Amino acid sequence: MTVNTKDSKDMVKTVDLIIDEFHAKKEELIPILMKVSQELGHISTPALEQISERMHIPQSQVYSVASFYRLIYTKSTGRHVIKFCESAPCHVAGGREVWNAIQKELKVKPGETSADGKWTLTTTSCLGVCAVGPVMMVDEDIYGNLRPDQLTDILGKYE
Amino acid sequence: MAYFRSNVLVCSDPECIGKGSEKILESLLAELSKKGLAEEVKVMDTPRIGDCDKGPEILVYPEGYHYVGLTVEDIPFLVEEQFLKGRPVNKLLAPPKKEEAQELREPTAKEVRVVLRNCGKINPENIEEYIAENGYAALAKVLTEKSPDEVIQIVKESGLRGRGGAGFSTGMKWALTRDTVGDVRYIICNADEGDPGAFMNRAVLEGDPHSVLEGMIIAAYAIGAQQGFVYCRAEYPIAVKTFEIAIKQAREYGLLGEHIFGTDFSFDLEVRQGAGAFVCGEETALIASIEGKRGEPRPRPPFPSVRGLFGKPTSINNVESYANVPQIILNGPEWFASMGTEKSKGTKTFALAGDVKKTGLIEVPFGITLREIIYDVGGGIKNDLGFKAIQTGGPMGGCLPEEFLDLPVDYERLSQAGSIMGSGGMVVLDEETCMVDIAKFFVKFIQDESCGKCVPCRVGTRRMLEILTRITEGNGRPDDIDLLEQLSVEIRQDSLCGLGQGAPNPVVSTIKHFRKEYEAHINDKVCPAKVCRALISYEIDPEKCVGCTLCARNCPVNCISGELKKTHVIDPDICIRCGICKQVCNYGAVLVK
Questions:
Q1: Strands across the sheet with B58-61, in order?
Q2: B486: burial class by Cβ within 10 Å (0-12, 13-18, 19+)?
Q3: What is the ipTM of this complex?
Q4: How many CB atoms lie within 10 A of CB B442?
Q5: Which CATH number describes the domain made up of B347-430?
Q6: In terms of Cα–Cα distance, which of B419, B430, B487 is closest to B459?
Q7: DSSP H helical segments within chain A, as ranges?
Q8: Predicted confidence band at B333 (pLDDT cuts at 50, 70, 90)?
Q9: pLDDT for the residue numbered B386
Q10: A–B: how many Cβ contacts below 8 A?
Q11: Is the pLDDT of residue A17 over 50?
Q12: Are B306 and A65 in contact (CB under 8 A)?
């Protein structure tokens, strides 16, 4: 999902297109930020400046909104983002063991990106599939009934 | 009207058309008339069946056979088998839908399905299946026979209360919005279901979106809104997609847009996605988020029914509240009010999670006891362990111990017991759960999700988390319980919104019902449930150990010593209490103390 190879011209164009799609309406700031974050991996400083300028919203305000929402990334992310559910139903169903195992397996701390730029490890609030906890989401894929021994297989699927 | 013994629906979604569904329709007609069945079998096109990636597809009624991946060559055989000989062609049938981890099972005797009645039964991506289940009949009745005031009166009489948790009368809320003077009014569906352990709304949005949509259109008519929003969290991509399909189909059928059912009433709505902020489930924060701002709550009053979205009167209701409305209109307020308790009418969906045998979605009438929910509907505790507590109402709810098992579930009684109804998450905890750990867990959640606007919530919950953390790490101080109780009172009194006001609930309820566990952690430095790592130690039972060396080989810090076939010993100074030795031991020789 993350496109790190785009050069700056492409980035400007991508951001412009997204703003156009939502008619540069101020109340659509959140969908715009979400989409830019998805397309570019995160809201980079140039992207933030561009959004601010085109939408006539001060940069401080754009940043305050972007940094408020968990799914809008203000720091660059790895090629794949793991969101691990840290809510109680998953916790009591064995989530803690799985969570420790992921950190060990990937050698990444929560909120950080691995040195090779492959993984970003984050926690998320409830994903709403509590009947099959513990649960994690890798990019758009949800995995339930997790056990520590399955991690190598699951994570191995991602390039 | 001609009588047809069979009706065939051919999907004419663009994707299916691209795959040749028009040719399928033509050859079906040709083949049927060739076999002399044109008078008996009616062929129609339908905007969408829903498995278009496997298209072209058709549905055969009354049996409901769903054929996919059809080619023109299949048609003669299909017509002969299905319509002449009357037997289905198995090789062309759509594969049965995979059941999603049995989220929704066959209802048990204690369940009543009103909100969930169509979930899992109809195809949520096909409006015709909803219409076939009496869908949009309530809307038609309302628009042609009832005035907005009459609709509000019916909803008031039914006793329906907000299913998002606060339990305010839905009819009253609509009346307040309607009575506020203004040219523009809005209606919002709060689908920002973020409570850990709650997934009722997701199930309804994914399984029966039109029931919510119909409820919203009725509400819009009642309060006089022309525009609506569904605010759905981005963590539910399938719900968002399903609802968008539902909106599109409703527009095609003239159920949304200008002059609905040929009346003067016009209404349309759109889906807005959240961006991962739990606090946006609070109504004023949700409104700020739709307006494109930080999702921070503001003080109430004024309530949204007076000053809401873009400063206009706005009625915000929960997914489940809307889904109840069409049934109330069709079956009458008396029918709805006949279920439940004196002040809590109707049914409620709950998501059962945690240490219960049958986790998943249930719908039960108010007044059912917690015991019935856990043991009769949920099948009892997993691994046949003992029951310790049930956590209701999400992160701002409370934990209720065994003596409350016979409590009838309704809004008032749960509050009196020290918990809340909340949106309907229920997490069952078995005897191996540490209640201090659970309290810490919920406080951590709230601390993470606090928007930071007001001090009691931002700083207060952090202080609470610090105290709970030191208790579970064996550094609890004698006056920590008092300190927690004092903090709880202040956070509850002084916080701006429900998130902060409810934040102390997990702590207050666990201190109230499980005070001994707190005391054991603080005074004796013991975790009775043997969960808190700093307060437990691992030992090997010499009676049971056979000296297989398995534990020693698996220990990540090499703290287990012992020779083959001789009793092993754990060095407590090196042990990091990871528990791997206990997991791998085949003889149950590793003990936790």
A1: B41-46, B6-11, B58-61, B65-67
A2: exposed
A3: 0.80
A4: 28
A5: 3.10.20.600
A6: B487
A7: 8-21, 29-40, 45-55, 59-68, 88-90, 96-106, 151-156
A8: very high
A9: 94
A10: 127
A11: yes
A12: no
CA count, 13 A, side-chain hemisphere, B317: 32
pLDDT at A6: 54
* Amino acid making up residue B86: G
Identify whether the C-beta of residue B41 lies closer than 8 Å to the C-beta of residue B3.
no
A60, A73, A91: which to substitute to probe chain B, counting the most B Cβ within 10 Å? A91
Beta bridge partners of A143: A136
Determine, for residues A131 and B194 on separate chains, whether the beta-carbon distance falls below 8 Å: no
Q: pLDDT tens-digit profile of B429-461?
A: 999 999 999 999 889 889 988 999 999 999 999
Q: What is the dihedral of CA B86, B89, B94, B100, to 10 degrees?
A: 70
DSSP notation for B33-65: HHTT-TTTEEEEEES--S-GGG-S-EEEETTTE
Q: How far apart are CA B559 and CA B573, in angstroms?
A: 8
Domain identity same for A85 and A44 = no
The residue to which tokens 């066959």 are assigned: B106
> Are A88 and B438 within 8 A, CB to CB?
yes
B250-302 per-position pLDDT tens digit: 999 999 999 999 999 999 999 999 988 889 999 999 999 999 999 999 999 99
Last residue of a domain, one of A68, A93, A114: A68
d(CA B272, CA B265): 23
CATH class of domain segment(s) B537-592: alpha beta
Distance of alpha carbon B537 from alpha carbon B526, whole angstroms:
10
Residues 57-76 of A with CB under 8 A from B: 64-65, 68-72
| B172 alpha-carbon distance from chain centroid | 25
Distance between CA atoms of A16 and B127, rounded to whole angstroms?
A: 36
For residue B142, the model assigns a pLDDT of: 96
- Domain of residue A28, residue span: 8-68
Which CATH number applies to B6-92?
3.40.30.10
Do A128 and B198 make contact, defined as CB atoms within 8 angstroms? yes
The angle subtended at Cα B106 by Cα B101 and Cα B110, nearest 5°, is: 125
Provide the whole-model pTM.
0.81
Search chain A and give the residue with CA nearest B234: A71
- Summary mean pLDDT of chain A: 88
pLDDT band at B96 (very low <50, low <70, confident <90, very high): low
pLDDT given for residue B169 in this prediction: 96
Q: What DSSP line would sit under B471-491, residue for residue?
A: HHTT---TTHHHHHHHHHHHH
Residue pair B191/B278 in contact (Cβ under 8 Å)? The answer is no
Q: Of A24, A45, A68, which residue constitutes the final position of a domain? A: A68
Between residues A125 and A104, the one the model is more confident about: A104
Residues 6+ apart with CB under 8 A from B262: none
Do A22 and A63 fall into the same domain? yes
pLDDT score of B592 more than 70: yes
Domain boundaries, chain B: 6-92, 127-337, 347-430, 435-523, 537-592
Q: Which one-letter amino acid corresponds to residue B128?
A: E
Instruction: Name the closest residue on chain A to residue B446, using Cα atoms.
Output: A125
Beta partners for B271? Answer: B230
* pLDDT (mean) for A127-138: 84
More confident residue, B573 or A133: B573
Residue A88 contacts B, CB cutoff 8 Å: yes
What pLDDT sits at residue B2? Answer: 62
Identify all chain A residues contacting B195, using CB atoms and an 8 Å cutoff.
126
Residue B169: DSSP 8-state: B
- A123/A96 Cα distance (integer angstroms): 12
pLDDT for residue B99 is more than 60:
no
First to last CA, chain A: 12
CB-CB under 8 Å, A126 with B198: yes
3-state class (DSSP) for residue B428: strand
Query: Which residues in chain B have Cβ-Cβ distances shorter than 8 Å to A28?
Result: 292
